Amino acid sequence: MVEKIAPVAVDAMGGDHAPGAIVQGAINAARKGLAVILVGPEARVREELARHRAGQALPIEVHHAGEVVEMHDHPGQAMRRKRDNSIRVCFELVKAGKASAMVSAGNSGAVMAGAILVLGRPEGVERPAIISVLPALKGASILLDMGAVVDCKPIHLVQFALMGEVYARRVVGVARPKVAVLANGEEDSKGTDLTRAAAAALRHAPIQFVGYCEGRDLLTGEVDVIVTDGFTGNVALKTMEGTAKVVGEYLKRALRSTAVSTLGGLLSKTALDGMKKRLDWREVGGAPLVGVNGVGFISHGRSDALAIENAIRRARDAARTHFTDEIARAVAPAEALLEGAAARVEKASTPPRRASSHDA
Q1: d(CA 181, CA 204)
Q2: 138 Cβ partners below 8 Å, 6+ apart?
Q3: Are 315 and 297 in contact (CB under 8 A)?
């Protein structure tokens, strides 16, 4: 029996193309049976629904929110001063159980701030993280953090690894995820003080930790969970997005360069379309938050209807797994793991005491 689940709350006013693309994405999701609550100024949202000729039979509700968080707003201040903003109201619906998850393509800092302020963190979680699902050659790897915590401490990386393992197992469906820390080499001596401390602790964690991985491993699928600080993770993601765009453009130009190559491109169209879809960030829809008491997805600011539709579906599927119930238990050993690693380092660096005449 399929579990009946509450609708997904969607910030109708978030993103470069709001509310038009957001409402269209919600309509597309609703036409496929996904229940949605559109959150924003009611008159404007209903006007947009009417413009798209969305019938009353669709599973779409409208919930009024009178304020909007702009991209230039300070995230924390906006959450406190604009208490009726569409992002905060989405989270309040999740907290009240009226929505199973929320999706927003708006100010990502405000989404993170709203998640912490309204939903709160599971016991023991130091900092939430943002996950990116990567289009790997084998399956799908997840990378975290994508920008929530720029200046990480070892405890953050250890907790990211433990939370990421839960997400990969419960949501992505990997039976025993392989977890690695991103570094500049595979040897234990590589990395920084931060990565070495985290890796030393994770070697004794109750997960399948495989050590370091390198940037070249991000898209191979050999590792299921890749852990790094928010600065490095965000740079890595943007680099991959840019590389995919450039490679696609090179390929397009090459296929148009001669009559023969153009014919080859036409013959390969099905395969090329499949590759393009695989690399299209809109197919992922959004980046889930992990480490808060609820399900939230941050979509790209340039999200169109396809991205929003996919984000709604993924958010609903993630909420159905109840993965957040396991997070507090997963991060509980983090402090002890770090203390154990520090004790082992201290013991290894302490020279043995020489015997003296008094020991005789």
Answers
A1: 14
A2: 220, 221, 222
A3: yes
